[in-house]
Structures
1.
Amino acid sequence: MNIILRCIIHILLMASLLAHPDPSHTLQQLEEHLKESPNDASLLKQKAELFLNTGHPDQARPIVEQLLSRHPDQPQFLLLDVQLYLCQKKHTIALAKAQALTSAHPTFSSGWKYLGIIAAECGEMDSAINAMRRHIADEPKPSPTDVLTCAAWMRDRAEPEDAAAAISLLDQGLAKLGMLSGLQYEAIKLEVQLTRYDSALRRIDALAARFHPSVDLSLRRADVLEKAGRHQEAAAACDSALALLALLPAKSKKNPDYATRVQETTRRKEANLAKVPAPPHDS
């Protein structure tokens, strides 16, 4: 598995683990509450998650076993068991337990998410993609990280329909989460990869409508138009970027980067204009 993919999986895993416990509860606070309610499943779950998040699976194990002995069919506690083995880097066992969890509780979307993470760790990318897509489909508000990660897995797998399917997945995320620039930027890259330049430009228009025109968006428009061979329009996009740069406050213009950006954008505009075919002469 390549280094970038491993980094994505690691970031996704850490974000997933850190999302669970109540950050207001330190271990000391949890212990105080547990003195009053020693069998409170919610408090025990938070304590186990705290140990897992801080890399202490051996201390989490007896708590997970206690919860499972009392609630053997509860998916949130079965997921703790999956996380326990994942924290111990026992991926084969974690994978089997995640598969059993999703089989027994197919509507428990977090089970599919962890099945995807673990399958990716094991190099089973088809299973990872299918599981994460199921999680995103079932989750009302999936994490943007999950959506971007699954799209990246599909892009890297590079089967014939993967780029188009990844765009559909990103659009699914946008429909559930609203206009998030990160999801749109990834979709724009894929649209360009598929030479769907007008679709990419429409996405830039949508971003400009939501977040207002910007130098960055104008230059992204120039990127797309250059790849499409539409150099007259690319030059106009550079002109737009220059106009927006000119509107920046005086404090920003004192930054050494400002002059560099103006010079680079001007050169880019001129390079595009140089590629525009001359109009035909009248005979």
2.
Amino acid sequence: MFLTVHAAIGSAAVLAVWPSAPTPVAFVIGWGLHYVGDFVPHGDEKLGEWAKRGSVVKRMALASGIDGLVLLFVMAVMIARLKWNWIAVASAAGSCVPDVLWGLEEIFGRKLFGSHRYWHHRIHFASGIRLPLWLGFSFQFSLAVVLWVYCAQHLG
């Protein structure tokens, strides 16, 4: 799942359930919600297969870089135009941590965070359902739009 979608899930969920959560708690909740999002089939496995056909680090850096720029743009718009708060930012940041940890292990080519990679991978593929790429992108895009609109309405 793309970071932009993970961040939307983290922010929207915390704002919906506990909008006054302490900032560190919002961060941890966002982190935990990352795994919930990864459990849901989301159809981006083909992106990983594409990355493995070349330099994995370079190709994943390209995909993650684009995703990261989109996320920064969304966050910048939210912060500039709304009464954005640190709870929403913390939960969005926390929801990105597991993929950052995974990415660092890819970059350095070794285990850095214990069994995190193993469990992250197990959760990601636990359902056994693989969606076509077009359906996965459509699902993720739609989910992100709905959740970011919810955040905007909640904070606006």
3.
Amino acid sequence: MSLNVSALKNYLRTCDKAYLVHTGHAATVDYRGLLKRLASGRTTITMPDALAVIELLWMELRKALASGEIVKLPFGSFYLCASGTFDQADQPFVYGDKAHGHDIRLHFRPNRTEEMALAAETEVERGQIYDKQAPVLIRAASASSGEYLTGERGDYLALSGQRLKFDKTREDLGVWYLNGSEHRAARYATVTPGTVIAQVPPELEAGQYRVVVRTSPNGKDLKIATLPELVSIA
């Protein structure tokens, strides 16, 4: 997996370049997924150990931040920043005062040395011109077992991404399984912009399949997203 960099048409009058750099991400790692990685890494800590350490770190981090301190970690610093306006110089600051925009936000400033090292390690994949209406497929997993890039005939496959929503009553839209021939999923448990849960057609033969989502945001033009990896159907 890699960081996807594509060209986005520029409509800003303040910039004279035709295109802007647009970034796309390979996947999202949730809290549980990160804990699994920590537990399966090159250490002897277990998943409960990792959970306890992270929760303790966040507890102490919150205490320090709420006390007005800047917390410096090896990879960067966390701090709170207040914003808003005053009518008088001695006016109290009241968090949540919408009339004056009083707010407090959590900020993170990365360690520049670590940031540069991370940038040098990053694998970049050059994408095509970015289409704001086109769907993006990021991840596929079995809806029942959660196993990545696998599914069973008749079971459901959970797809994650962006702008995936489509009209499932239209025969030309939906989720398709490609392996020499095309097979459209006829049943859908969920169809939202970020998640589609589609049945794996029972008639599929076991094998490797390319998964494609076809949408039509404006009701006329066809937009297509293809999952980069093949999905194993058993």
